[in-house]
Amino acid sequence: MKKIGILGGTFDPIHNAHIQTALYFYDYLGLDKVIFIPANIPPHKEKLSSTTAIDRLKMCKLALKGYLDFEVSDIEICRGGESYTFETLYELRKIYSSYMFYFILGADMFITIDKWKNPQKIFDSAVLCTVQRNDIDKNILIKYAKKIEKLGAKSIISDFKPDNVSSTNIRSKIYNNKDISNLVPCAVEDYIYKNKLYTE
Known about the structure:
Helices cover 42% and strands 14% of the residues.
């Protein structure tokens, strides 16, 4: 059976840790492709920056140019409104009916997924995949995985740790005129400065 990794997020902006995580699971799970899906309006974020959804989509496409098995989908942006994962997985299932889905998400999102809208439909649609980060102990992830396993969720908790990078930190650095060249792909950095993003 063919396997697809699905990596959703705000990507405001997309950064190296996003790509490192996708590459890790691509190799570890032997995925056929990874689909990056920028959210239109993420329900779990109180406020987005002043960037548009199209800016975030374009940055994803620039970041992933050259990765043959990585692609960017505008499925949530085209759908409009708040972006709910269960709806996205349902739509993707119509396209990739015979594929196994692996939903890749950060540790901070992983330990809240039972609070998302219709989590059961997510658990029924995909295997959850997460990586460690410095401020969330692996034991917390394992304990949470056992909790949602009772609800039917299947989880993969990796020992891999991507670079300690966050979009929030990148936006702060740009606002304060600090270097971000080691945090995002060159094409993304160029797009940010050319379009004067995150300066307000």
